Amino acid sequence: MVRRAQRYIIVIILVGLTCLFINRVPTGNPVPLKRDISLFPVNIGEWSGREMLGEAQGLPADTDRFLYRKYTNEKGIPLYLYIGYWGKFRQGSDVFSGNYLDPGYMWDSVKERERVIEVEGKSFPVREVVFAKGDYNISLLYWYQTPRGVTTKRFRGRLLYGIDAILNRRTNVALVKVFSRPFRSGNESPLAIQVEFAREVFPRLAGFLVFGK
């Protein structure tokens, strides 16, 4: 327990120092996307998407570019895809804030766990979060893509962010969210469908995001 506490303290100190560095030192020019994410495929396998820009309240407002779509499969089941991209650190902005994950007012996180998704012979981590409000739940899968790989851990994300700022003067990052519509507690979770959809989304991101991993 003592060693674990020491590790947490060290991580917190490192995160604090890197955040202080980012706030005080120029971090280079914004890193552009390979292709604008508005060109991300509307049709993905059995899924067809439509823009939800008019309903983007509550989503991060400080991105350089973002995509927000509702995708519906052949059975009529909807999922929502959000891709937010920051090309450079912004003063006062916290890309890894939990506020960027919450689905809205009064939704509380009641379950979180890490998952690993296999796709095309590789794997990537996602974070599963279940939010609750009254008798309803929302299921969320999310991950961050950074120049140093994919992560779901917000502390680790901040640390990687700071390391890249120090070494490369680069602070670009993407947040990807796949979430469900509200469903009644006790009903079947859409998680399995979200995982399958994330498998379709992840490899396609390489054509738009500039990260090598």
Give the SSE layout.
Elements: H1 2-24, E1 43-44, E2 47-51, E3 65-72, E4 78-86, E5 108-119, E6 122-133, E7 136-146, E8 149-151, H2 154-168, E9 173-179, E10 183-184, H3 191-204
Antiparallel strand pairs: 1-2, 2-3, 3-4, 4-9, 5-6, 6-7, 7-8, 7-9, 7-10
Helix pairs in contact: 1-2
Structure description:
- The chain has helices spanning 2-24, 154-168, 191-204, and strands spanning 43-44, 47-51, 65-72, 78-86, 108-119, 122-133, 136-146, 149-151, 173-179, 183-184.
- It is an alpha+beta fold and 213 residues long.
- It has one domain.
- Strands 1, 2, 3, 4, 5, 6, 7, 8, 9 and 10 form a 10-stranded antiparallel β-sheet that branches.
List keywords for this structure.
3 helices; 213 residues; single chain; 33% strand; alpha+beta; 24% helix
Helix tally equals 3
Count of distinct strands: 10
Mean pLDDT over all positions: 83
- Counted up, domains total 1
Q: What is the helical fraction, as a range of percent? A: 10-25%
Distance between the termini: 33 Å
Encode the helix/strand succession as letters: HEEEEEEEEHEEH
Unreliable stretches covering 5 or more consecutive residues = none
**How many strands, what sense, and barrel or not for the largest sheet?**
10 strands, antiparallel
Q: Strand pairing plus helix content: what structural class?
A: alpha+beta
Oligomer: single chain
Radius of gyration: 18 Å
Overall 3D form? globular
Proportion of β residues? 25-35%
